[in-house]
Amino acid sequence: MPGHVVLKSTGPDPDPTEYLYVSLEQKRIDQTKPYDAKKACWVPCEKEGYVLGEIQGTKGDLVTVGLSGGETKNFKKDVVCQVNPPKFEKCEDMSNLTYLNDASVLYNLKSRYVCKLIYTYSGLFCVAINPYKRYPIYTNRVVKIYQGKRRNEVPPHIFAIADGAYMDMLQNHENQSMLITGESGAGKTENTKKVIQYFANIARRSDHFDKKVVQVKFSSGGVSFLAPSLP
């Protein structure tokens, strides 16, 4: 399938950088986008969900918006959404957005997805969009990037969530759970498999797995980690 990255059985793992981080060139392009805080807006669109527009005037409860192609339409004020400044382009954690409206959330997820960034945080949650392609972001090389790291030290990933649950279990000696939910085809099963893979991988590296038995239970849409008993 086009877009697949074929993993070789021998040799080093592929470089995952472009699938985890926004490139410096892309950041430069994003930061130079024109932006007028008073005029930029999102408006509803049947085909796209929301499209970018420019406020040209208001009259009572109606807002006149200029759209791409020179078209002008009137919208009710309550459906016109504000646009975030360029510094929030492809934001890793949407809870940091100045404007957390539906249009801004959808735009951020879409813009990251187009750049092959399928994971995005929204506060405590990690949003995953199924790329229907194989990206090299679950290799041993990627496991090393996330193992033992704080969530804000690494880009969004299911491995970061898994490692956070594992570290909390070891430090607090309390059971941990992960809820993986979504519509059919969203990637619930695949992400659950990746959580299992992550723990299987760090099991070979960690003294905690050698000395203590950590039970992992799986149920529909969730993973539970049972803390080992204290000596």
Write a structural description.
This protein is α+β, with helices and mostly antiparallel strands and 231 residues long. The chain has a domain at 136-226. It has helices at 17-20, 24-31, 102-114, 140-146, 158-172, 188-203, 207-211, and strands at residues 40-45, 49-59, 62-66, 72-76, 81-82, 119-122, 125-128, 176-179, 215-219, 222-226. The strands form three sheets. It has a five-stranded antiparallel sheet. A three-stranded antiparallel sheet has the order 8-10-9, with helices on one face. Strands 6-7 form a two-stranded antiparallel ribbon. The chain is elongated and about 65 Å long. The relative contact order is 0.12. GO terms for molecular function: actin filament binding; ATP binding; calmodulin binding; microfilament motor activity. Pfam families: Myosin_head, Myosin_N. Belongs to the TRAFAC class myosin-kinesin ATPase superfamily. Myosin family. ATP binds at residues 182-189. This is Myosin motor domain-containing protein.
Task: Give structural attributes.
231 residues; 5-stranded antiparallel sheet; 3-stranded antiparallel sheet
Quickly count the helices.
7
Helix content: 25-40%
User: Stretches where pLDDT falls below 50 for ≥5 residues?
Assistant: none
Query: Taking strands numbered 1, 2, ... along the chain, how are they ordered across the largest sheet?
Result: 4-3-2-1-5
Radius of gyration: 21 Å
Elements, N to C (H/E): HHEEEEEHEEHHEHHEE
Shape: elongated
Strand content: 15-25%
User: Which whole number gives the mean pLDDT?
Assistant: 88
> What would you call the structural class?
alpha+beta
Biggest sheet details: 5 strands, antiparallel
User: N- to C-terminal separation?
Assistant: 51 Å
How many distinct beta strands?
10
GO molecular function: actin filament binding; ATP binding; calmodulin binding; microfilament motor activity
Protein name: Myosin motor domain-containing protein
Organism: Scylla olivacea (Orange mud crab)
Keywords: Actin-binding, ATP-binding, Calmodulin-binding, Coiled coil, Motor protein, Myosin, Nucleotide-binding
